[in-house]
Write a structure and sequence with these properties.
about 1000 residues, 7 domains, alpha+beta, Rossmann fold, Double Stranded RNA Binding Domain, 25 strands
Length: about 1000
């Protein structure tokens, strides 16, 4: 086995990549092998010393040393007894000499040796190399130099004999090192023997190598660092190593400083104070068409901030994927500042909380909600077609008495004590049924998600809120009116209105009033069901399922469609397949027929809620852009903030852009710049040292640490936007840090035990809550997805699916924290380098690297010295046909010494010209950068994975070999290998 292969094997055994090492007696001494748990010796040692040395390999506490002996072999038994006795004698002697008194004269002896020049000692570490060990150290140093299978690197000795006048003969030795060593030749002093001459010249070489930094203060070859941190995914204890995808930590979510404002904490009783707010109108334009009229409504809202935002916010445009065949392009437009008094501010805050509590399904009381000055902005409605605030609508909604009815407020999730994804159906509907079942048992049950607010639900919702109409008015219903649970309403005004079903707590948009149907109409059968009739009429259905005796059975039924949960509209959620295109003309909408007397008109208009469901996605993008603008100002180099945001957005966000392409380019540019800096800064370092030093500057672990130092973790967008975990001002999410503590979880367990008896009944009833839906579509599409009018209902589960996360990412429940892998932070650093390079060139990328703390700048003297090359002997210059090489390359060299170095193989005997390994190191980085840049700008639509494949196909040794042979460059290679000569 070659020395390099042996060193690589031992290195793997040290860091745990190899756990079983089979070795010959060479492993007894001279090799740095880690402590072993088990040492098994097949052949007995030949001497007691060899036995003790191999015994020392099992010096780890609790390790086993196993010897294999031949049965009935008396010689083996005698040797083992003798070895054990000798080991015990040595142990006793070592204990008795623990005071080291016998070494009192050793310091004087070492000083004498140093004075005589036979020993070289490093003062800082005490490491010593003597005449006896110098030759071995030089050989070991040469074995660690970079080489390939065609070059065997070893020192060469040239002896000279000197005859004295008195007839004595002395010898001097010249040491010649391989051409990739820091120096090639050194002359030793004259000595009385050949052996001493070799030892002295090697000792001088060791001194010079240490002075030049080629060997460390421990007198070992300088390898330029280690790569163990990159090779291992985990430590010996199983913990993930920083810089890898498996290493993840919690980080607080960043909030832009421009969003902060104490004005939002002002109360109505603050006197006659006024506040000036900057209003930004949300402009929306629909691209495409959908049959759903609600989706076609514009977003008539504005956002009010305490300070004026950066101008780049106005140039930002975002695409909202609201339907399969339609997107909404939105942007912000600055309006004139608005001055609000405390009454108006209180009214706007009240409206904002009421609106967002319904959109996000979080039951919040505007009078008691907690406001946070770190995120200060409010939503206000606008009069259609203008930039004026709709104060009438704000006042009508903010102080509507309908909010006193708990059914009109939000229905947040409850803690179910099980895997909610396994329940099937609508888990909120299940939660409502479970809560209602517990109420009828007359036990006071604290609503689990109200643990922070202390609300107690100890009443029967249906009876306490007056949902049953008065008998005396049932017979006198005016024409054109419907008697609903909260009074009379005009039929002509109900289209598009949002209503709440008293029997289920669900909300619906009114699609139409079915004059041809009433409660006595036949109840439709389930699709494909051929058995006996289960329900005779709608009235019979509500009687059996909900215990409700409908009293106004002649009233027409309301055809409604469910109000979907708030969705992430920033991600393309619809696959444009041929099948879906062919089915666009079919009606696949799900409707439900509702008795008017079980419905309440919601205080929020349907179109208003539908438009407000876009606000979380819009503000997510605005908040992210403000963070990108803030980071751009911190960096101090102007490029478009949208590009900075792209570099901060991971692919796991599933948005229309991410940092992966920029990361690919930034990684190549970073490798090139650091390689250039190392090449010029350390002209004495060989390729292996430069490679390891580069790894120490560009590894994921280093970039991760630098990202933390600059606080980049607060700016990164690494998980798919989930509105249920988004925090709106004044409307904190249900699952927050205060709720998810140990006491809260224990309360949930007691609640689960308390309601255990009614769980079976609730599950049975909740599974049938949707059985009265009327599915209007062709038979072909029974199992297909719903179309535009109900796509939000179809995709409820997909928005919360954690399986869509990127490698190394986790979706957590905590709203103010997120989990990032350290590799993500490192990738963002490379992506930032990439976008700065694309937008403003190398100067901008170098500025960013300086800001991050990555070395990139070099002195002009270093560049001049590198371009000058080495001094090439005249004999070498005459032996090379420069004109032919330059003609093949199509380039004339000003410094031909660099060309000589580029064609010199490591196997070439030293001639004053270094080999091409250092140039290969920097050339590999140049080539990688140039090809990556070409592919990046040429194939602008290809994903990063395809770009990586193209680069791998273009940059490989076989292709380069073919090019070299095609142009005849191989004929000019200067080498000293017989194996290469025969090829």
């Amino acid at each position: 086995m070659r020395t390099r292969q042996m060193q690589e094997t031992i290195s793997k055994f040290k860091d745990g990549r190899v756990t079983l090492l089979v070795a010959t007696s060479v492993a007894e001494e001279g090799l740095d092998i880690r402590q072993c748990n088990v040492v098994i010796r097949f052949d007995l040692a030949k001497t007691v010393l060899a036995y003790i040395q191999s015994r020392g390999r099992a010096r780890k506490p609790g390790s086993d040393y196993i010897l294999m002996l031949e049965r009935e072999n008396l010689t083996h038994d005698a040797f083992l007894r003798n070895a054990r006795n000798s080991e015990e004698t040595l142990r006793k002697e070592a204990i008795e000499r623990s005071d080291l008194s016998h070494l009192k004269g050793s310091a004087k002896l070492l000083s004498a040796e140093l004075a005589s020049g036979t020993v070289y000692q490093v003062e800082g570490t005490g490491a010593v190399v003597s005449l006896n060990s110098a030759v071995g150290l030089v050989h070991f140093f040469c074995s660690q130099l970079p080489s390939d299978r065609y070059s065997i690197l070893r020192p060469e000795f040239r002896l000279r004999m000197h005859e004295k006048e008195n007839g004595c003969v002395e010898y001097s030795c010249e040491l010649q090192l391989p051409c990739n060593a820091p120096f090639e030749r050194i002359e030793g002093p004259s000595c009385v023997s050949i052996r001493l001459a070799q030892q002295y010249v090697c000792l001088e070489a060791c001194k010079k190598l240490h002075e030049m930094g080629a060997i460390t203060d421990y007198l070992l070859p300088d390898m330029g660092g280690t790569e163990e941190g990159e090779k291992n995914e985990s430590t010996d204890e199983g913990e993930p190593v920083p810089g890898t995808a498996r290493h993840r930590e919690f980080y607080p979510e960043g909030i832009a400083e421009s969003l902060q404002g104490d004005w939002i904490l002002m109360q109505k009783d603050s006197g006659d104070a006024n506040v000036v707010l900057y209003m930004y109108k949300i402009k929306s334009e629909n691209i495409g068409f959908t049959k759903d009229s609600l989706l076609m409504h514009p977003v008539n809202f504005a956002v009010m901030f305490g300070t004026e935002m950066d101008s780049e916010i106005l140039s930002m445009s975002m695409e909202l994927f609201v339907a399969r065949t339609m997107t909404t392009k939105t942007s912000l437009e600055l309006c004139n500042p608005r001055t609000l008094n405390m009454t108006q501010l209180d009214m706007v805050k009240n409206f904002h909380v009421r609106l967002m509590s319904i959109v996000l399904d979080v039951d919040v009381d505007p009078a008691t909600t907690a406001w946070d000055s770190s995120k200060a902005y409010l939503f206000v409605p606008l009069i259609v077609g203008t930039s004026d605030i709709d104060w009438y609508l704000i006042e009508n909604i903010a102080y509507n008495i309908s909010w006193n009815n708990p059914l009109q407020r939000a229905r947040p999730d409850v803690y179910l004590g099980t895997d909610e994804r396994a329940l099937g159906g609508d888990r909120r509907e299940y939660a409502f049924a479970k809560l209602r079942a517990s109420m009828t048992s007359h036990n006071k049950i604290c609503h689990p998600t109200y643990g922070k607010r202390g609300a107690v639900a100890d009443f029967d919702i249906v009876k306490e809120t007056g949902l049953i109409p008065f008998e005396e008015i049932m017979d006198d219903i005016p024409d054109g009116m419907l008697l609903m649970a909260d009074g009379f309403h005009k039929v002509s005004e109900l289209a598009g209105v949002m209503i709440t079903a008293a029997h289920s707590g669900k909300r619906f948009y009114v699609d139409s009033i079915r004059e041809d149907l009433n409660a006595e109409s036949s109840f439709p059968r389930k699709d494909g069901y051929l058995g006996p009739v289960e329900y005779n009429s709608y009235a019979d259905y509500y009687k059996q399922k909900y215990g409700r005796d409908l009293r106004c059975k002649k009233q027409p039924l309301i055809r409604g469609r469910g109000v979907s949960h708030c969705k992430n509209l920033l991600s393309p959620r619809f696959e444009c397949t041929e099948a879906s295109t062919n089915e666009e003309g079919q009606d696949k909408t799900y409707y439900v027929m509702l008795p008017p007397e079980l419905c309440l008109v919601h205080p929020l208009p349907g179109p208003l809620v539908r438009g407000a469901q876009c606000l979380p996605s819009i503000m997510r993008r605005v908040e992210s852009m403000l963070l990108a603008i803030q980071l751009k100002h911190d960096i101090g180099y102007s490029i478009p903030a949208s590009k900075v945001l792209e570099a901060l957005t991971a692919a796991s966000c599933q948005e229309t852009f991410c940092y992966e392409r920029a990361e690919l380019l930034g990684d190549a540019y970073l490798k090139w710049v650091v390689s250039r800096w190392l090449f010029l800064k350390f002209p004495q370092k060989h390729e292996g040292q430069l490679t390891r030093m580069r790894q120490q500057n560009v590894s994921n672990m280093v970039l991760y640490e630098k990202a933390l130092q600059k606080g980049l973790q607060a700016y990164i967008q690494a998980d798919r936007f989930a509105p249920c975990r988004w925090t709106a001002p004044g409307v904190p999410p249900v699952f927050d840090e205060d709720v998810k503590d140990d006491d809260f979880i224990s309360d949930k367990r007691s609640l689960r035990l308390q309601n255990n008896n009614c769980n079976e009944e609730v599950l049975e009833s909740s599974s049938d809550l949707n059985c009265h839906l009327v599915h209007i579509q062709s038979d072909k599409c029974n199992k297909e997805a719903k179309d535009d009018s109900s796509e939000y209902e179809v995709l409820d589960d997909t928005d919360g699916d954690s399986s869509s996360t990127e490698e190394g990412e986790i979706e957590g429940d905590l709203s103010s924290y997120r989990v990032l892998s350290s590799k993500t932070l490192a990738d963002v650093v490379e992506a930032l380098i990439g976008v700065y390079y694309v937008e403003s060139g190398p100067k901008a990328a170098t500025h960013l690297m300086d800001w991050i703390g990555i070395p990139s700048r070099y002195d002009m003297e270093d560049g001049t010295r590198a371009r000058a090359g080495c001094t090439v002997p005249e004999t070498v210059l005459r032996s090379i046909d420069f004109e032919k090489i330059e003609m093949a390359l199509g380039y004339s060299f000003r410094e031909r010494s660099l060309l000589v170095e580029a064609i010199t193989h490591a196997s070439r005997p030293a001639s004053g010209v270094p080999c091409y390994q250092r140039l290969e190191f920097v050339g590999d980085a140049v080539l990688d950068h140039l090809i990556t840049r070409y592919l990046f700008f040429t194939y602008t639509d290809l994903p990063p994975g395809r770009l990586t494949d193209l680069r791998a196909a273009a940059v490989n040794n076989e292709n380069f070999a073919r090019v070299a042979v095609k142009h005849g460059l191989h004929l000019h290679l200067r080498h000293g290998s017989s194996a290469l000569e025969t090829q």
